């Protein structure tokens, strides 16, 4: 009796329809990534790793239930446009873009695929979104700062050098937000009595010549603005700044870690982690137009004392007391 009962029960189980999830594997979701840094760029790899790790914590693992297709443009704007079209043709379910240099070409390549951006200054002014609260269209993301933060860089340089009278602005002329950044710094410069000289960075070959010419003037220090070219050529900039012993304020921590004197800006890795959260929500059915663009809630002041010593600079105690991180 027991054997007949067991066979009867087993027959019933075999005859019962399996759930769809058991009958077939869940589909692998597709994510595109377009970054303006190079595949060999250590900082770029760190940022994308933060994004991928945050996705994993949310249950998305590359090669298991998602497939991530990445394109590394290494600052080549023609390549960015080509890669944007390439990713759009793959028709992923969402695309991560990094910086204004990639966001705008990606928007030109598709108006339907959801896009999440990071590190795009002034996304409204540059035409990436309609508004911060209701971005509209197929795009949303994370902006690193508003323009008032740019003025803070000059204020920090002035605190470091009370007699500051002439400062250079190392900038990417193709960066959509360069005008807003420059205007914000100029408004502070006027009140502080500081003359500003723009130094436009195009290619690495011109950095040495441009900074040598600038150092031969009466300049006291430098500010490096946000932009694709300064970020890509940061090693060359930091090296030339050290050669000419120019105190410099940078926009992000990774400059200070690599030997820059001082940085003030948001934690970019937080933006990449936040972007993973937005990608997760989009994969689960939410629309980019319903996800507000987010700004940082705090900024980090990082000081490299080793660099200060090499430049013969004594850091004011007031700046050291305010620093979130001191590299010794």
Radius of gyration: 24 Å
Q: What is the helix/strand order?
A: HHEHEHEHEEHEHEHEHHEHEHEHHE
Number of helices: 14
Strand count, sense and barrel status of the largest sheet are: 7 strands, mixed
The CATH class designation of the largest domain is Alpha Beta
**Sheet/helix structural class:** alpha/beta
Overall CATH architecture of the largest domain? 3-Layer(aba) Sandwich
* Average pLDDT: 90
CATH topology of the largest domain: Rossmann fold
Work out the count of structural domains.
2
CATH superfamily of the largest domain: Response regulator
Termini, distance in Å? 81 Å
Strand order of the largest sheet: 7-6-8-9-10-11-12
Secondary structure blueprint with pairings:
Blueprint: H1 2-15, H2 20-23, E1 29-35, H3 42-57, E2 66-72, H4 77-90, E3 94-98, H5 100-109, E4 115-118, E5 139-142, H6 147-160, E6 166-171, H7 178-192, E7 195-200, H8 207-215, E8 221-224, H9 228-232, H10 234-243, E9 248-250, H11 253-257, E10 262-265, H12 268-283, E11 300-304, H13 305-311, H14 317-322, E12 325-327
Parallel strand pairs: 1-2, 1-3, 3-4, 4-5, 6-7, 6-8, 8-9, 9-10, 11-12
Antiparallel strand pairs: 10-11
Helix pairs in contact: 3-12, 4-5, 6-7, 8-10
Structural overview:
The structure is a single chain. With 328 residues, this protein is α/β, with parallel strands linked by helices. The protein folds into 2 domains: 29-144 and 267-290, Response regulator (Rossmann fold); 147-265 and 300-327, Rossmann fold, CATH 3.40.50. 44% of the residues lie in helices and 18% in strands. The chain contains 14 helices and 12 strands. Strand 3, helix 5 (100-109) and strand 4 form a beta-alpha-beta unit. Helix 4 (77-90) crosses helix 5 (100-109) and helix 6 (147-160) crosses helix 7. The radius of gyration is 24 Å and the shape is elongated. The termini are far apart.
